[in-house]
Amino acid sequence: MGNKWTKMNADEMTQAAQMILSYVWLDMSETKASELSNIQKMFRSTMNEELELFEDDLECKGYIRSLPLTAKTVYRYRTDVKNMNKNDRLLVMTVFDNVDKNLKLAGIKSHNIDDKFSNDLLATATGNNNETVDKTEPKNIEYTLNVVTADGISSKETVDDPDDKKLLRKLDLHLVPGMTLLYLLNYLDRANIGQAKLNGITTSLKLSSAQYNACLSVVYVTYVVFEVPSNLILKKLRPSRWIPLIMVTWGIVVTLMGLVNSYGSLLACRLLLGAPEVGLFPGATYYLSSWYKRREFSWRVSILFSAATLAGTFGGILAYGINNMNGLAGREGWRWIFYIEGIITVVVAVLAFFFISDFPSDRPKFLTESECNRVFIRLRTDAGPGGAEHFSWKQVGLAFLDWKLYIWSLNYIGILVPLLSLSLFLPTIVQNRGFVSYKAQLLTAPPYAFAFITTVTTAYFSDKYAQRGIFILFWLLITMSGYIILIVANNLGANYFAVFLAAGGIPPCVATCITFLSCNISPQTKRATSLAFMISVGNCGGIISGQIYRAEDAPRFVLGHAINLGFCTLAIICTSILIIDLRLENRRRDRLYGSVTNIEMTNANTTVDVFGLGSAEDRRRWGYENISEEQIRDLGDKHAAWRYIL
């Protein structure tokens, strides 16, 4: 057979199915001949039917795409399993990648199928196990050998996958750096108006303090309007097309900002800028969540968000350098900030058409067939029994019916107002503490460099200990201490130290808040909607942040610092509510349905089968005997087996 699986005719596929069945029923001593014959006939009849897929079973697209085990076959097979004798041991269709170990577990001493694709299929078909398996808890649990009897009682064994770290490194190399670069440009283009102020934009355009603040805030009006639609479009379309398209659009707008000559034209450009820019961060966050498991996600999102801190670092240095171009070609220095940064964005956007990969289901070229299958299985096992992957308007609606979404959104507002106000006004705040403009631009870089360190460090420990809320609370307190010092101290050194605390404390809160929601919302459509809504509501804080530091409050800006203190307090309250509620809900589910064992939760790996349906015993325990498989998958985070990450 070798590499001819995808080229079989009907007769060859029938023979292959019979071969597979000979392994599946290898050790079943009490199977009735008539029942076995019926199932074999079912396999044969399926060979000539259209090869359909379960839309929400990602693993089917890898292993059952053009093989005898079609999705329709699997469905019928699972139905016939229910009619077998009580003592018969049958295979639950779990996909394995470690062929040699699974053959040993299945009692198969040798085989003559030589290609990797067929090896995986054979391992799938030979999951029947009558031998004693070592029950020592493995360090990296991932696969489960599920053997069930006809009455639904299952036994679960685990199989290590030593290639996970290699796969993660490959994903990190191909996905994270590109998205981080794009978000760096996104944040740089949004906040560069703060550097343009130091280079004379308010003087050139004769802007009042209120007019300048309006230009800061108006971008977030379109942010709020277009956030959710943009994420839904990303879900429906390919990221490799949608993300570069919005980048080209906002890059052109930024470039045109260098041509404005009045308050009205600057205001219009800032309003237009928000519409395409809004899609990048929530889109990139959702995109990464489609590739990584929940407890791997915080680190990757924090690396992504660290681009904002790098933008603050490089933005000040870049603006300082561009200021020396003042008068070049008869243009002011602040115009060159928009020209150069806008053109860079357009160029990178064009390149992004070629380096952005799409979702796992699109089977990107940088992964092998086996690696794609592995990604599917990892996502399925992490999603658990309630993990539908298909787009669903029902899930969009359910997202808005979850009260926790609104607490998360308030929490995000409380965090985002201090972040955005600081990014917009930090150069002005530093300048008003006694530094000339070019030194103020350079002095904004070190606090952002510190923020990069705190963001990445928090992500590492957040994933290591599988905690989100406690890190948010810690850094909110650090941020508040910085604002308190800014209010009460009138010493230059103390104020600059306080800027470090405020600038370094709030970015890790943003990244962790995003992963706090993403790790606790399922299925994917509900997560994409919730994430976009939270960020959209949070961007209302952007409208507020542009108004709280007024020129008349200089040089100490006590009112602005006090307002940020109040929003930090709001975030502390919301985070505490979420931690308490999620902890109580986990305990309630443990009490009603039984706790999740240490083995099942090690490294965020669960021992559910990849079809996510559970055994008959599981369904009885959960109270799901009378609902369909699709309904079980649509439960998402409401499923009895789901446990929230605190």
From TrEMBL:
Membrane topology: Multi-pass membrane protein
GO molecular function: transmembrane transporter activity
Keywords recorded for this protein, A-Z: Membrane, Transmembrane, Transmembrane helix, Transport
Gene3D superfamilies reported for this sequence: MFS general substrate transporter like domains (1.20.1250.20)
Domain Major facilitator superfamily (MFS) profile: 175-589
Alphabetized InterPro entries for the sequence: Glyco_hydro_31_AS, MFS, MFS_dom, MFS_trans_sf
Domain of life: Eukaryota
GO cellular component, one term: membrane
Transmembrane segments: 242-264, 301-322, 334-356, 405-425, 445-462, 469-490, 496-519, 531-549, 561-582
Localization in the cell: Membrane
Name of this protein: Major facilitator superfamily (MFS) profile domain-containing protein
